[in-house]
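Question (not urgent): is this output format expected?
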Amino acid sequence: MRYDNGPAAFDTPGALTGDESDGSKSTTRRRGAVIVGGGDVTQEIGFGLWETQRGERLTREIRDLAEFRRTVGDALVVGLVQLFTAVGRLDALHVLLDLNSRTSPPWSPDRPETAHDPDSTSAARNRMVLVSMIWGVFHELNAAVEDLKAARLTEVLTTSRPKDGEAIGSWKSLRKIAARWQGPLETIARNQLAYHLGDAEQIRKGLDAWPAEEALVLSTADHSSRAHTQFHIGFDLLCRGLDISPKDFSTLVDQGIADARITDDAMCVFFGVLHAKGAPIPSATELWRMKNKNVRGGR
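Got this back:
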């Protein structure tokens, strides 16, 4: 389920309360919302949190921070901030991976080396860096989940009436994903391959374990440019020193792909919290039902 459009995307019965005009542009007041001429929609979700839909852009902002903190509670706010930080980084890294897989023309006709080929050495280097960074962010996701647990998020969602099954399901999914990335292999990937340059001891182990008959590749380059150079030696030695097999590597890559999109779960939990705290919005479960009803009805 997508929550990109949020509560503003779903009209509720009796929402329109009358029209006004200031002489220059018409406004339609909706319960908790003002629809401004040109199609812009601004409405308060609750507790000082507002959202504005302007064309394709949806902006959410907290206009009354004191009320938002007082109602939601700082413990939950802090955990949600960490969760959104992780989600934002993962989304950015996956978008960059997608862009890296596409062909792009050179910046100018006299600079053919600036074209991007997804099968090039530089593209392979980019993929390795981006994938390892994704592993690291997934490992860090656990910090947000643990803080949300300490903030009693499970209790907040499960005591909401009516029970919000969609939000509870998304929270379970986030906990499962975060726990999966705390395993021994995932922790090594985070500590040695993602955020750090590798322990000297592990690099020495790689040097000692490297077969004498096998060449140790320092780098490859497609052009005489650093932008098209990949340095293999660090990653290869670390994998040898850490005894990370090709199967282990494939497991990490497949796992990163399988867990790629957690934005929907994060937003579902967020709206679930607001609903549980009393915001005058549909629960995540109700939004899901409304959206599917609209799809079936052809609207």
